[in-house]
Amino acid sequence: MTSTVGIDALGVAVPSTCVRLEDLAVARNVEPAKFLQGLGTRVMGVALPDEDTVTLAARAAHEALQSAGVRGDEVGLLAVGTETAVDHSKPVASYVQGLVGIGSNCRVFETKHACYGGTAALQLALDWIRSGSARGRKALVICSDIARYGVGTPGEPTQGAGAVAILLGEAPRLVALEPGVSGVYSQDVHDFWRPLYSKDALVDGHYSVKCYLDALEGAWRNYRELVAEVPPAGSFFSDRFAALAYHVPYGKLARKGHQRLRELDGDPTPDTSFARLVEPGLVLPSLVGNIYTGSLYLSLTSLLACHPGSLEGQRVGLFSYGSGSCAEFFGGTVQPGAHARVRALGLMERLEARRVLGIPEYEAIMRERELIDERPAGAATETGAFGYLGVEQERRTYARRGAA
Ligand code: CAA
């Protein structure tokens, strides 16, 4: 058995173009306040036709490895959690292995359970390291998705695109994850799904909100039973955490989730701790939108990059939700130096440098994306290295770093 295991580095990839929800609201004849305050999202990332789940995953993976100073042959497990894969058989992880140069003595696979798929891979990878099977090697778990509901649907303002790569290992430099205590809750429900024939997700929107909150309640009750701690007088159980990161389809749902969690703790004013415990984790998600599997980990990244104080040495709680459904609540301790390491990624600067699309251009991109899986291979355009080039002899092809 190994001692401390957790997140050693993070890498984040978002598209270079985005839509402001204010502009989308005007185009859809909706009060902008509904999207900005009612949902709590300001900007959503829009993937260009030469970006897909593979290119986002590869860019995030490259950044995590670079940030940690880890070589591809030091990785013994590579898993991609996604619900927007590019092939029914070949995993996104195999493309990533080739693109970023992960060695061959490595388990490579894809996991799926809606937005929970990345967490499933992360928990499995943590157990692989804790069991001793990793023999000092790292696990690279990547959450990568393009969230798509379709133009003009109620889900449209909750789209987004992006990937978060999570490098896991012993003596982690960002967050040490608590072993053995994970609150889990799952159910067979039809709240959100994507039939094999459809590129767009289907969703029973208001029911999906109920399922999220019910699953949060179940996972939180399970976590509290496992930890079995009585909070000090005058505090609530969730005060054992200095910050909380939730799955964020849109910020308002994280706020509702937090209220439910505090009510369960017996807090008579369940919203008052929101600004302190949750809000710093919503800064990046409110500028990117829903990125499905990576959403929780983007919120964790946001806590580390944007928290006004220091979380170092303190506990953070993490809530993962995947429709269908499976949910998990777990926690960890932020390590010394974590804030500086994550801030060095320069995420805010990258988000500010994105090109803002007008609504007609965004709609044209959405139409073009309908056909990208059959597009004949051509030259990479805007995204360069790791860009999607198209299909050649029935095979997807990509630009490699340095060869774009
Ligand atoms: N000013 C301020 N707020 C306003 C407003 C205005 N002018 N007009 C409306 N609002 C508020 C509403 O009061 C509401 O807030 P509350 O929930 O606090 O009441 C909020 O804006 C949204 O309004 P509606 O509920 O009327 O919006 P809608 O019916 O058009 O759709 C939605 C909302 C169901 C979330 C829809 O966007 C959707 O289907 N999204 C995709 C599904 C989704 O994200 N589900 C989340 C749970 S599932 C999951 O977590 C997995 C995953 O990632 C998909």
What can you tell me about this protein's structure?
With 404 residues, the chain is of the alpha+beta class. The chain has one domain (5-400): Thiolase/Chalcone synthase (Peroxisomal Thiolase, Chain A, domain 1, 3-Layer(aba) Sandwich), CATH 3.40.47.10. 33% of the residues lie in helices and 23% in strands. The protein is built from 13 helices and 17 strands. It has helices spanning 21-27, 32-39, 53-68, 92-100, 117-130, 205-227, 251-264, 274-277, 285-288, 295-306, 338-343, 347-352, 359-369, and strands at 5-13, 17-20, 43-46, 75-81, 107-111, 138-147, 160-170, 175-177, 183-186, 192-193, 202-203, 243-246, 315-322, 326-334, 355-356, 388-392, 395-398. Strands 1, 4, 5, 6, 7, 8, 9, 12, 13 and 14 form a 10-stranded mixed β-sheet that branches. A hairpin with a 2-residue loop joins β16 (388-392) and β17 (395-398). α3 (53-68) crosses α4 and α6 (205-227) crosses α7. The longest helix is centred in the middle third of the chain and has 23 residues, at 205-227. The protein is globular and about 65 Å long. The model has no long low-confidence stretch (mean pLDDT 96). Bound molecules: acetoacetyl-coenzyme A. Acetoacetyl-coenzyme A (CAA) is lined by residues 31, 33-34, 37-39, 115, 154-155, 158, 191-192, 203, 205-206, 208-209, 212, 247, 249, 252-253, 290, 292, 321, 323. Acetoacetyl-coenzyme A binds next to α2, α6 and α7.
Taken from the alpha-carbon principal axes, the silhouette is: globular
Helical proportion, percent range = 25-40%
**Average residue-wise pLDDT:** 96
Order of helices and strands: EEHHEHEHEHEEEEEEHEHHHHEEHHEHEE
Distance between the termini: 44 Å
Total number of strands = 17
Please identify which CATH superfamily we are dealing with.
Thiolase/Chalcone synthase
Hetero groups: acetoacetyl-coenzyme A
Radius of gyration (Å): 20 Å
Contiguous uncertain segments of 5+ residues: none
What's the CATH architecture?
3-Layer(aba) Sandwich
> At the third CATH level, what is the topology name?
Peroxisomal Thiolase, Chain A, domain 1
- Overall CATH class: Alpha Beta
Number of helices: 13
Residue share in β-strands: 15-25%
The main β sheet shows up as: 10 strands, mixed
- Content-based structural category: alpha+beta
Number of domains: 1
